[in-house]
Write a structure and sequence with these properties.
heterodimer, A: 285 residues, alpha/beta, 10 helices, 8 strands, 42% helix, 13% strand, B: 441 residues, mainly beta, 16-stranded antiparallel barrel, 4 helices, 19 strands, 46% strand
Chain lengths: 285, 441
Amino acid sequence: MLILLAALHVVSSIPTLGSLAKEVGGDRVEVESLGKGYQDPHFIEPKPNLMLVLNRADLLLHVGLELEIGWLPPLVLGSRNPKIQAGEPGNLDCSRAIPVLDVPTTKVDRSMGDIHPQGNPHYWLPPGNAKIIAREIAQRLAQIDPDGRAAYEKNLAAFNERVDAKAKEWAPRVAKLKGVKIATYHKSWSYVSQWLGLEEIGYVEPKPGIPPDPQHLARLIGVMKQDGARLLLVEDFYNKGVASLVAEKAGAKLLTLPTDVGATPQIKDWFSLVETVLVALSSNV
Amino acid sequence: MKFALLLVALAFPAAAQQADGGVPEDLQKELEKAIQSDQSAAQKQGQPGAPAPPAAVAQSAGATPQTLPRGSQSLNPDISAIVDADLGYVRRAPQLLSGDDPDLHADGTRHALGAAVQEVELAFSAIVDPYFKGEVYLTIPNLDGIEVEEAFATTTSLPWNLQVKAGSFRGAFGRQNGQHLHVQDFTRRPLINAAFLGADGMRGPGVQVSWLSPLPFFLTLSAEAFSLRSDPADQTQALPQPVASFGADASARPTVAAEAKVFFPFGDAVSFYGGLNFASGKSPGLLLGPASTVGAGREAQLYGADVYVKWKPPNVAQGYGSLAFQAEAILRHLGAGDALQDEWDGGAYAQVVAQLARRWFIGLRGDVIGVPSSSVLGRTERVGTSLTFQASEFARVRGYLEAEHAGSAPSAFLPQALPEWAPAAYLQLEISIGAHGAHPF
């Protein structure tokens, strides 16, 4: 009970970051997420009760790379919590050490759709990135709670070992996916594709956040047929209507995949999240 | 080409709706057509079955991870500009025109038809230092001079759940008063805005202290004081102006206001946001001639209540849809003074906005002011409907129809608007460029 009372209150923008904080924080932290695992992290509504959650936070974890730009800033300001304001130790942008993909190399504007000028923020699934996030969280927890440093380091080492062990277990499935051609709904699978060696040949959205027109879909179907794309990936929070039509016309399998802890009640941590995605992908090629 | 597509989408909302939603028959047909035309084009080019890759096909996955250059790091503030342009028709001059309503310059009883730029807004915002956030919003309503809509600092680091806002800002009074034009669901603001809060809303130089209660549910209390300045409503003009509630004797009598707001979520989908409001100041009354006023310096108090109830599923897996109900009511007490008796007046509006499809929203609003009426406020009713096509997060096109009914003037000071019934129609285009920040719930 004493430990619970003293626990650091960690609030994450998406549940996966909170889950990783629990891995390295153990009993010294209690975690809560603003968004749910079945919500689109771009478009969470900034409901005022979330300010209350943030008001009690010792540490805020967010994805960064402007993923939460449409809803998190007014909540942080309205929380009236000095500890988690930008620039404070209690505010951790978890992307800070991530090798970011899809960073624009030319000048960007919104004719390109709802793009992320700092790069692709959907980075938390691959094991390598999960280890980076966990390390960043452990370091930040130790900064806020120096008495727990040894515990955080121990938990981090244990987490890394578990990730490595799982990676070995997953290796045959990963190998099976190398070179598999896929299409996706939103351009949010770049990190997974890089990890698994998937080859992305097209997207249902002509530009990020822009709904497709029939001409774009026809071209995509043509490319999918020509390149032999066998899978069309869509996140579970998107509407499947158009994607299922494209998959059907292209002779591909539509895979509805979770991207966050809590997407279903069975997905309780990062390991079960990644395993769910990996099993779904490898079972369908 | 894009403009043509937009026009098509506007003309055939149902088709566009389906293209965004489920597995529609129309889309199937259009897709079949597009596939056929694509294939025949490819055959003509001698590339059977090899359509050109779509622009969106990029091969970024599998690329070597880059060390993040982090774009252009800059200490400049976020800057944005928002333009609201309209084509419109009004049967006669509207009874109460808010500052950022489109002004077609209808002259009394004559109709007006034409174009307006109802507002150009320039916004700048940034974290100032570890203690403040700064925001500046300049507005040019109806191309008529630049105004400071808001320019204020908000504290970020005060203890005891306190926050202070200082500068010139929109007061915390109900829901619509704090919102800028581009957050509104209709082309014109509700009638209670100009009738009770001022044509530009209750805004001006002042200071606000707000407190987030530590209770298990969301409750904020705020108190604010403004130096509002308003002139008497000039009834000698062609367009009579609403009588301001506050702003007389500004140097000696600040306008003060207080608000309590609560929020309750019901599951993931349903939200309830409500508030109670109070404001007090001195009314500048009416100007009847060069040196003739009535009602100047009367004490005025506003009592308000607002409610916002929204249903929106946590994701769009089952389709695009949401429903929001919003209503506000204001009751005003005007004390005796300058030839007028102690009296009460009031008004309210209620609106429903439904999301029909990914990009389509429809709204219905009913307004009434002058319930009860007073010697300075007659009765006006209005009903309005809007259909909004949201091309992207940064552009929307809105059709707005309204019919306004002006009741008979309750006092000799107020002219009778004729004809009593006045329809109006607007086509509004709104664009936002630059780094526009998130909006509160």
